[in-house]
Amino acid sequence: MNKLKNLHIFTAELPYEKDQPVTLFLRDNFVRVDDFIMSLGQMSNIPPSRLYQYENGKLIGTKEFIKNNYNSGGLKLYFFYIPKALAAVTWDLIRALHRIRFKCDIFFAQHFLPAFVAVILRKLGILKCNKIIFWMFDFFLIPPQFTRSLYYRGIDSIHNYIRKNVDEIWYTTPRLAESDEIRFGRLPEKVIKRFTHLVFFRRILAKKPTAVPPLRLAFLGSLRKNNAIYESVKSVEICVKMGMKVELNIIGSGPEETTLRKYVKDNNLTKAIKFYGFEDRGEKIAEIFSQCHLGMSLYTADPYGPNWHLTSGRSRRYISQGLALIVSTVPYFAKYIYDFNAGIIVDNNPEDVAKALKRIYDNPKILKKLKKGVGKLYKKYQADNILSKVFEEMLSS
């Protein structure tokens, strides 16, 4: 894709990856890009909101805003910390837009909050932009718990308003688009629908792992129960009891970290399981992954969880770095793993996972076949290829 002169993009995103594929693409293909990173997320230590300003791919300015902290739960979390964080980020987003005099060609929202703010500001005549794009990669069903249900009903109302007032919505999976239509009805004719599918990260060159054994596994993500971190740890525990030389490298932090570390220590698993803590540097993640043979991508079957509809961020990162997957049936991403033979699909059960790992441990040649599938999957849905095609379609229409 050729550099697009005379186009100024403002984008807003969550702080999970410093090498976020969409933002890198925008920075490298548009003359002016302002990237607002929000102080929101499920990390235990959320960085402050920041604005990075680029011209011709070079950083020309930065601004740091408020740092949020909402390590809490229950009523205090949903009725104080989260509203406070959302209000602070909204104010900082407005301050960031003020730095560009509320003018840009395209406002590219990578989260519902900036999409909502952009729509409101444009309706008020404050924001001057030709197009607002909402990149939808998340979907929330209404859970039964009182506090959480109120929170998600609020998101629902905002989302329903956004989808009627942006210029385009880009979905990451067909199921996400279908679920969105079932929940809210068909999009207005004026709102254009496009698909970006998987948008894999740019591959960072790193060394290849040594031969099996030991069988080295990676876990990337927030250490929460619904990320099946306990199932991943117990799978390794079973493998160790079976006499396998296996290692699990855990990258991430979260509410279960202290309990997990204690479990690993109490069950004499410290040689088999290593904690790296939270890490968002792509180069460091790639370095750790270069030691591994498989990525663990298990999810609990939560009927109200979003992963039935989504591509799974950690799975995208594994494939981007050439790792085949051990993936449960829950994330929509499992469909791509099946279609391309890029991993092994299992039930989210430690015994079943351990059996699958034992098959590979006993016959490491399976990894070569899976890696071929990984290569084909990555090539088809690499971010620059997908985004170049979608942007060209949009700009030529």
TrEMBL record:
GO terms for molecular function: glycosyltransferase activity. Gene3D superfamilies: Glycogen Phosphorylase B. The keyword Glycosyltransferase applies. The keyword Glycosyltransferase applies. Keywords: Glycosyltransferase, Transferase. This is Glycosyl transferase family 1 domain-containing protein.
